User: Fold this.
Amino acid sequence: MTAAGVTHRAEIHAAAASSLRGRQVSGAVATTLCALSMVGALATLIAVIAYTVFRGIGAWSIGFFTHLPTPAGIVGGGISNALVGSLIIDGLAILMAVPFGIAAGLFLAEQDGRFAQTVRFTADVLAGVPSIVLGLFAYAILVVTLGHFSAFAGSVALAVLMLPIVMRTTEGAVRSVPRDIWESGLALGLQRSRVSLRIILPSALPGMATGILLAISRAAGETAPLLFTAIGSQYFAVSPAQPMSALPLVVYLDGIQAYPDIQQIAWGTALALIVIVLGVNLGGRLFVRRMRRTSA
Amino acid sequence: MLVALLFGVLVLAILVVLVIQASQAFGHFGLGFLVGTEWNPLRLEYGALPFIIGTLITTAVALALAVPIGLGVASFLAFFAPAWARGTLSVLVESLAAIPSVVFGLWGLLAVAPWVRTVLEPQLQQVTHGFFLFSGPVLGIGVLLAGLILAAMVLPTIAAVSRDVLMAVPKEQREAALALGATRWQAARRVVIPGARVGILGAVTLGIGRAMGETIAVTMLIGNSLSIPNSLFQPGNTIASVIANQFTEATEKYHLSALIALAVVLLVVTALVNGGARILVARLGAGQPSLVTR
Assistant:
């Protein structure tokens, strides 16, 4: 081996070492920046939740959940009417959106034609339509024609909001059942409808349940669709034909007041809303995980 | 089949009903509706430009923060997070999307706004020496605050969809790069991210759609001014927030119709943005979009 060859090899080694060092440094910088982003996102989540707990927990008492609202300055106001209102408004929306959404989702899962493609795309676009636009739609078809605000109009707006979520998650859940299962059912001589109902549907159920729970958690926190429909109320209303209070409306309407005691009600309600919405949301995710594990 | 047809009818109904309600304003003001700078119900003038600009500015502020951080979070989850933490971290990031927008509004108004007024805005003013975007009286509420909170709200959308897109790039490609001696970051930057570029653009576009349509938090934070903001410190209005603010007070027929016309504009723009985003994400074959529900 010549002397020139040796120096050449040394140069290559030196170059490789410095290149590796450079690449490791840029890798470390990138890792740090990405980790910092992650920390930032988590810090925001914690800040919102912790601050809401901090300000809201003081408002909580038995009376807070069982009393009607009181005017500013009069202590002892509660959100009982908003709790019941949210239950009624969201319940009606679920009754409208879930059966329809499951049916449409099952249809999408079995079809791949141009019509199904269009429906699928439309559902995705509808899922991105701002909720206030859906509120205006419900206002136009129900409040204008009937001449008064109603909880039912709010339910319709929320149902339209939930529909594409239920549709697409149902479709995804059904599609995730392996094709082989479907074919072995047919090979055993079962009718198509029996295979769908007795074999595919049970395996798709956890995924569908998650979709429904996510849709509910989304609808339960929405304010904008209720602004011009259910509009809010100080009274105890149970008829869907009347204006009705709801938890998100209380957070909005009380939160923008200047009175500290009314703001306190807003914080307490915001805390209740976070507990309900995150509970349903995380519950849905955990539920599907457990179902998958036990059925696997 | 029948339900799918009914669904189509429903979507058409939404469009038709709103367009009919808005036709009075469109017919009366024509294109001037979109470029008019004066919105004054008392003088029967309805020009939507201040709100269109307000929507664009708040969206831009939100995206300027949420895109880099969101992509950082997505990269962390896809490339760097230890396997045992990935699931939990993903759920936590998506939980941010589950927090109701009205809670973000309340938090922004009563917790963040005082900090923006006393700390962030004065410091920005000092550092930038009277740069026009950061000038004027410090109020706390305004375009900057709305954009800040919006950033937190669109962050999970951008992060979760980008993560799905990054994960959808075949594992073999990344492993091949690692086998050739690339560092983890090199494999990510040179192989995975270029392969996912279209999908990431889709994720950002979804974030844009979300930021433009967000209503209640922005309504609580932006300060509701009817003129075009000429600094980020000033109050303004977005299309969505002006609808939320004025609708219940709109008694005059053109006022009501003009607000619904604004909703039609918002509907068309967000539908275009979302449709485009879905096409971009789908083209990459990331399949079913993530379970982030907004």
Notes: The CA atoms of residues 213 and 283 of chain A lie 8 Å apart.
